[in-house]
Amino acid sequence: MQIENQNPIPPNHPVLNHKVLYTVLGVLLLVLIAGSYFWWQEIKKSEISQEAPTLRSEQSDVPSDWKTYTNTDYGFEFKYPSYFIISSDDKTIIFDIDEFSGLEISTENNLSNLNLTQWLTSSEQYNSKDEIDKILNESEVGFSFQQNELRVDDKIGLKQKYDGEGGAVIYVFLPNNNKIYILRLGSDSHFYNQENLILDFDQILSTFKFTN
Predict the structure, then answer these.
(1) In the Cβ-directed half-sphere of 8, how many Cα atoms lie within 13 Å?
(2) Distance set, CA 79 to CA 62, 67, 84, 120, 138 (Å)
(3) Tens digit of each residue's pLDDT, the chain (212 residues)
(4) Fewer CB within 10 Å, N side or C side of the chain?
(5) 177: which residues sit within 8 A by CB, 6+ positions away?
(6) Which SS3 state, helix, strand or coil, does residue 189 take?
(7) Other Cβ atoms closer than 10 A to 119
(8) CA atoms of 57 and 52, how far apart (whole Å)
């Protein structure tokens, strides 16, 4: 049953007003959609910036007493704290920190240009995340393991951290020119300030540059 309109539109009411109303509503809807879209884009940008691997500091924040190490044979340089003492500058570069802590840098060939996960899986000396996870799942071991990507001098590398009661070992793997550059930081649990050492290592990475 159709209900009669008790307030009919007067005959002289212009029908065009309905079109104007619909147009205004349409414009408001578009503004709302556009505003929501740009709001969503800003959120995505924020999420991306939070997900991007970052290092603790830029070069401008490096303490003035830090030194610069340059290796022309392997084509890289970086800044390091004065308490790091170079004890070997051969195929493996070694910086002594104390009796049980130090930084080692070496290179391995990657002639097949494998990505880092493939290279780690094929390596007899190093382990991929899947291999370590399998070890952790199948046996009781006295360490925890973390892996994440990081960007060093526009190269996407992998950072692995083994943490246990005896201390921490951090590996950073960086691909460059069919080679894998490996930085290994070993820190004994009794080091006077292990947390600061790891922060200094992050700052070392922020200054690391390939020169070849």
Answers:
(1) 5
(2) 8, 5, 10, 27, 41
(3) 443 444 443 334 344 344 444 444 444 444 444 444 444 445 444 443 444 455 544 555 899 999 999 999 999 999 999 999 999 888 899 999 888 889 999 999 999 999 999 999 999 999 999 999 998 898 877 889 999 999 999 999 999 999 888 788 999 999 999 999 999 999 876 555 778 888 999 999 999 999 98
(4) N
(5) 75, 210, 212
(6) coil
(7) 20
(8) 15
What is the rounded distance in angstroms from the CA atom of residue 80 to the CA atom of residue 209?
13
Cα-Cα-Cα-Cα dihedral sign, residues 96, 100, 102, 104: positive
Q: State which amino acid sits at residue 17.
A: N
CB contact set of 88 (below 8 Å; sequence gap of 6+): 94
CA 103 and chain centroid, separation = 21
- In this structure, the dihedral spanned by the alpha carbons of residues 110, 90, 205 and 143, taken in order and rounded to 10 degrees, is 80
| CA separation for the pair 173, 161 (Å, rounded) | 12
Say which residue the tokens 């951090």 belong to. 170
Residues in the chain: 212
